[in-house]
Amino acid sequence: MNYLIYLAYGSEAIRCEACYSILSYYEQVGSPAPDTQILVYTDAAAAFQQILGSRPYISYPAVSPEQWQAWRGAANKVYLLKIGVLEHAAAHYPGNLLFLDTDTIWRRNPTPLFAAIAAGHFYMHQNEGRLINGNTLSRKVYRHLKTHEWEVAGHTFRVTPETELFNSGVIALRSDKAYLLREVMTLAEQLYATYNKHMMEQLAFSLRLAAEGPIADVPDYLWHYWNLKEARPALVQVFHTYGTHPSAELLARLHQLQLPRLHEQELAYRNLPGWRRALRKLVGRRWRLPPLEV
């Protein structure tokens, strides 16, 4: 079996993002295959069912408040919830697991990905390059961590000039590799204790999976608009206005927000040399999210 896994815990905006991603998946695959199921880990299953209806291939695993808290780990970080979700999925839904963040839009049918996962490949969303010459935060993390090392399950992990950081908006592995997840959690907790930055969770995945085998990325399969948190109110408004309309109309309205195009524009601005961004701010030409028509 193949499983698409979403973690939609907390705000209405996150639930709306997840619904958009699920609708975009159905748009790519047409009729869902009986060997592929969607698992939505959420504290508000009824809100999903109100929008998506009762679909035979979507399940909402029950999670207690105590379990949600336990999944935050010793570091008490919301970022670590995805590790607990993946462990739960591996234990209760064995097969090929493909976790993705809610702020994603499918652009291709993921069937080839599932075939590669079944063959033993690991996937994360995108290779963001070596820490040593990445963005400002990556370079800062490298400088802070390069003299440390961490012991996990007989492995010694270090940050070196060769260490690559992968975006954890997608995490894919076969369920029989689930033992790695407990080691990722242990490593992440140590990394947070060493340097309390949000990206320690994705660094832990990057380090541990890379020690097991090569990590491939999937940017051609979906858009991951992680840099557009400001667009969330407009996304929520679309669901308030069109959430009870037919799925095709709702999806068309969501596409009209043009989030992939805005994602690329903001990313291009973010990747400008620092002096160019400073100059654009000085002359009032910094990138801003344009008004979104709903």
TrEMBL record:
Top-rank taxon of the source lineage equals Bacteria
Q: Which InterPro entries match?
A: Nucl-diP-sugar_transferase, Nucleotide-diphossugar_trans
The residues covered by the Nucleotide-diphospho-sugar transferase domain are 96-200
UniProt protein name: Nucleotide-diphospho-sugar transferase domain-containing protein
Q: What is the organism field in this record?
A: Hymenobacter luteus
